[in-house]
Amino acid sequence: MGVAKMGEGLRGGFLDEARRVAETRSRPPGTPGASLVQAIKKAVAQRRVGLILEYKRCSPRGFTSYLTPPEFLERVRGLADAISVLVEPYWFCGSPELIPIMSPAAPVLAKDLVYTGAQLKTHARWGASASLLILEMLGWRRMEELYQVAVNLGLEVLIETNSPEAVLELMHSYPGVPVGLNSRDLSTLRVDFNKFLESLERVSGNRPSSSLLVAESGVDSEERLRRVVEKGVDALLIGTWVMRDRGSRNALATLRSQWSLNRPV
Fold first, then answer.
1. At what angle do helices 222-229 and 248-258 cross, to 10 degrees?
2. What one-character DSSP code corresponds to residue 210?
3. Is the dihedral of CA 97, 103, 105, 107 positive or negative?
4. For the chain, which residues make up each domain, given as ranges?
5. What CATH superfamily classification does 31-258 receive?
6. pTM over the 0.85 mark
7. What is the SS3 assignment for 139?
């Protein structure tokens, strides 16, 4: 029987998967999901480092790795306290349509180069739990404005900077808001891992007790993983290593089950 006369189309294999994905993409976008902040706090209460694992297919430096969303979710199953999803389309091959695919598994951080409130509204409309705000991109005044927009939309935020001094100021200015220290200098896109470790140590020795410190970028091996955890962070945001190396799952599983949080609670 020709395709034109078939009632339901061909069954099985890739076409079945394509139909399931189409149905997922066609669901009405949801309300913001489970809390990113509470996911990190839960990990801390359990004396372990929270894991924010990132779905990132490419970056300004080029192609990262191709994993379908189901393959990624299988790789991070049982490991991710939260999932960071690149939604920026031009440099990161992202889309907000990925948010509802990931959100049933864990709270979703919409990772975007946010500069307008309209972007935050898109994140909220697709059901993100939180959005990323980058201090160096926004400056203090615009960041405060967008922080208020996010709050009014019911979105949490992760505020990112690569300055240890700014991390401490953010922690005092926004109590309880997760603050990310990025090892990558966003003006050059370079990572200086040794400088990153020094910055983490400086922050860890001076931070408020109620603050939430997230280490971002630069972790691409079990050795680096251990060295960052030793600096007393509350959570790690890891993307490229998880996307490229299926062996990362074993190292992260060991971290989740055996390594204790290296700071007072």
1. 30
2. T
3. positive
4. 31-258
5. Aldolase class I (3.20.20.70)
6. yes
7. helix
